[in-house]
Specification:
Length: 541
């Protein structure tokens, strides 16, 4: 099962465009120049939705304001070196305070933004570590005044869903606009969603069908020596879970896993919804492969601002490995919001954190428009995109064979240029853009993974199962690295590509629609799935 959100990557801070601001929205002195936050308006808004009115002036809205890192491309250069296993800087990650001092905005610059917001009646909330994200809230009237735009209500022409959005890009006084890259929360059109693949019963050993922990660990050659003990893994979720279901799963397989911790961001995700099975799948897969790792579930609101804040909360926590099963097609996002999320991932990479994101369950057509498209954040160059396979194991729970799963997302990004660590496997079909996925793991729903959710056993599939399978491997690797006095894996892609296929099950058959599996890296399964013991040995070097 795969949940979805969408995109950004190795994209420079957006260019700022001078804007003419309607007099009704000019909040500062009459002759103060204002500039727009480029790309901070929904694409195609007036073509695929109908305006239905104005947002009520008194409606309270929360926003998350992203600031551009200092130093231009210096942060990209640093991450490239600290993540490159051939670099002398490899593994020498920054602490949070070091990152803030080197790449964060100054306290004076943050104070300038806060003073401006307060002058417009906007309430300033938390300033996150790194001085690159500021939370705020206000009424629709206050936000329209502060950001020089109009908030309208709209109705989606295809789905009929009602939403609100800014009619034009927000503007700020030029001295502030040069610092700001995104104002998340001015629209609520795009919500991250999960794709539940069919719950099927199959003739496998798990209750309700589906693979057991023993089958997953056996298929991927996970040594019983390593359990994830002493390691931490984060999950980003936009729904909740019931601990009683997790306890039932753990008890059935005698896993003895620590009880997951919960961190609620911006008030949490609200009441339990149909994403509950997604959250419980994520937790239980982590327990299956890394049973002794400490899992923290970060629950946030399913909104643009909630998403940015929840990723930032994970980075603030310093947890080294994160599994992501929520996303959306790149085309569903504003450019500036993609930039904001990408900046958080880049911060995490500089601080030694790794993110593993499901690539989607719609094959090569993630947007569902008949073309080829990929899912975000799996397409982000600072994220390891995880595709889907169908794993077959022997009666002794050993690897037998593996083929590409037809639903596994893959293809080329329409936003990010190909990163340097991927150029060695550059394909003509990629057209010079970021290629997805990087790796893959079992995702086929028949058999899926045996899980306990909502009071019963079932078999669940999708790349939402594959992402935590890889996050669990990262935790096992970090346990081994710690024992040898080495650094965490962190942002894994440069090291995974430098391995050149060693330690992977190379998957050469199957298709996800427009693309077919082939020898070496491909658009369906990336490098393939992991042989835990062999790959860890290779990466430890």
């Amino acid at each position: 099962m795969k949940s979805r959100l969408k995109l950004l990557g190795l994209v420079a801070a957006p260019a700022l465009v001078t804007a003419v601001v309607p007099a009704a929205f000019a909040a500062d002195a009459p002759h103060t120049a204002r500039a727009a936050v480029a790309g901070d308006v929904l694409p195609g808004l007036k073509h695929d939705a109908a305006r239905t009115g104005k947002v009520a002036a008194g409606k309270r809205i929360s926003v998350a304001i992203s600031l551009t890192p200092r130093g231009g491309t210096a942060l990209d250069t640093f991450v490239a070196k600290v993540s490159d296993p051939h670099s002398a800087s490899y593994g020498h990650y920054l602490t949070k305070s070091q990152f803030a001092a080197r790449f964060g905005r100054t306290d004076a610059e943050v104070r300038q933004l806060k003073d401006y917001l307060r002058s417009q009646g906007v309430t300033v909330g938390k300033v996150h570590s790194g001085n690159l994200l500021v939370d705020a809230s206000g009424t629709a009237a206050q936000l329209q005044k502060a950001f020089g735009t109009r908030l309208s209500t709209w109705k989606d022409a295809t789905t009929g869903r009602s939403f609100y959005a800014n009619d034009s890009a927000p503007t700020l006084p030029a001295s502030l606009a040069s610092l700001v890259s995104d104002v998340a929360g001015l629209n609520n059109r795009v919500q991250l969603h999960h794709q539940a693949t069919p719950h099927t019963v199959s003739p496998h050993d798990g209750p309700g069908g589906g693979y057991t922990p023993a089958q997953l660990k056996g298929g991927y050659n996970v040594s019983s020596t390593y359990t994830g003990s002493g390691q931490k893994i984060a999950l980003i979720e936009f729904d909740g879970f019931q601990q009683s279901n997790i306890t039932k799963y753990d008890t059935n397989y005698s896993l003895g896993s620590p009880t997951p911790a919960v961190s609620k961001v911006d008030g949490g995700s609200g009441s339990l919804g149909d994403g509950q099975v997604e959250v419980e799948l994520d937790i239980e897969v982590l327990h299956a492969i890394a049973p002794k790792a400490n899992v923290t579930v970060f629950e946030g609101p399913n909104s643009d601002a909630g998403e940015v804040d929840t990723y930032q909360a994970i980075v603030d926590s310093g947890i080294p490995t994160t599994s992501i099963s929520w996303g959306a097609a790149e085309s569903a996002r504003t450019t500036s919001n993609i930039n904001a999320v990408d900046a958080v991932f880049k911060t995490g990479a500089a601080e030694g954190l790794g993110f593993y994101a499901a690539s989607g369950d719609d094959g090569s057509d993630d947007a569902g428009d008949g073309g080829t498209s990929v899912d975000y954040p799996a397409s982000d160059p600072y994220v390891t995109g995880v595709g889907g396979t169908k794993l077959t194991v022997t009666s002794a729970n050993a690897f037998s064979k593996e083929v590409a799963w037809s639903g596994g997302g893959g293809g080329k990004s329409s936003v990010f240029k190909i990163p340097s660590w991927q150029t060695a496997v550059q394909k003509s079909a990629g057209g010079g853009y970021r290629q997805v996925p990087d790796v893959s793991a079992h995702a086929n729903p028949s058999p899926g993974v045996s899980i306990y959710s909502q009071g019963s056993w079932s078999s669940v599939g999708g790349t939402s199962a594959a992402a935590p399978e890889w996050a669990a491997f990262a935790a096992l690797y970090n346990q081994q690295a710690a024992a040898k006095g080495k650094a965490n894996l962190g942002f894994a892609n440069p090291a995974l590509y430098a391995a050149s296929g060693t330690g992977f099950h190379d998957i050469t058959s199957g298709s996800n629609g427009a693309y077919s599996a082939a020898t070496g890296w491909d658009f369906t399964t990336g490098w393939g799935s992991y042989n835990s013991t062999t790959l860890a040995t290779k990466l430890l070097g």
